[in-house]
């Protein structure tokens, strides 16, 4: 489950992520791409969708692991910055919150293992 929050303060804004600030256009995009959405009272947007962690590369067809679980995880934010952001926006207000009602948060040990694996297999 990929849960994202979009706001103007940090992370991607709605306009940056969707190429438009028009709510109707954003909602049409979400519906067309099996993405649930909810506009928050403060005007921010929360989306969620079930995404496969393994996809085929669009050119080679090779199966690739494509999952932002570690890249967008709260545990990759400097602890002091994370604490400040959680104080401001709450645990569920981060750009990619640690979990949702349907998903248990990913543990710090798993995020660390994923980041180590990324680093070990990254080709520059």
Q: By helix and strand content, what is the structural category?
A: alpha+beta
Question: How many individual β-strands?
Answer: 5
Described by strand count, sense and barrel closure, the largest sheet is: 3 strands, antiparallel
- Proportion in helices: 25-40%
| Strand residue content | 15-25%
Give the assembly state of these chains. Answer: single chain
Strand order of the largest sheet: 1-3-2
Q: What sort of overall outline do the alpha carbons produce when their principal axes are compared? A: globular
Mean pLDDT over all positions:
83
Can you offer a commentary on this structure?
- With 124 residues, the protein is of the alpha+beta class.
- It is 32% helix and 16% strand.
- It is built from four helices and five strands; from the N terminus they run βααββββαα.
- The chain has a three-stranded antiparallel beta sheet with strand order 1-3-2, with helices on one face. A two-stranded antiparallel sheet has the order 4-5.
- β2 and β3 form a beta hairpin.
- The longest helix has 14 residues.
- The chain starts with a strand and ends with a helix.
- The model has no long low-confidence stretch (mean pLDDT 83).
Q: SSE layout and pairings?
A:
Layout: E1 2-6, H1 14-18, H2 23-32, E2 36-39, E3 45-49, E4 54-56, E5 63-65, H3 79-89, H4 108-121
Antiparallel strand pairs: 1-3, 2-3, 4-5
List its traits.
single chain; 124 residues; alpha+beta; 3-stranded antiparallel sheet; two-stranded antiparallel sheet; 5 strands; 32% helix; 16% strand
